[in-house]
Amino acid sequence: SDSDPACVALTLANAKKAGADDCVSASEADVAGFAPDTPRGVIITNPPYGDRMLDLEQAERLYGIMGRVFPKGYGWRTTVITSHEQFEVCFGRPADKRRKLYNGNRPCQVYFYFKGQGER
Which end of the chain is more exposed for a tag (fewer CB within 10 A), N or C? Predict the structure, then answer.
């Protein structure tokens, strides 16, 4: 999902071009309302870094919301790509695993969350 309807349309168009439109869905939604109703799932996100799409304060606020609404229990996996060096602080918990990568020419980290609460 994305809060920008143009991004949702682009995602669906790209899925169709890739021949994956039968297994990809996308909808317009605000992350603050994210409330999955399944015991398992996967979240993969590359949220704004706080420079081009949002300012730094808005991005940090978004990371905090994500940390509150993304499931923390067993059966859920979350992967976040960002260049924000204080992401884990804003998100509210340390990643179970991290990896460095470049998004274009920008150094980033991939934060993996896969352990349920109490499994640290």
Answer: C
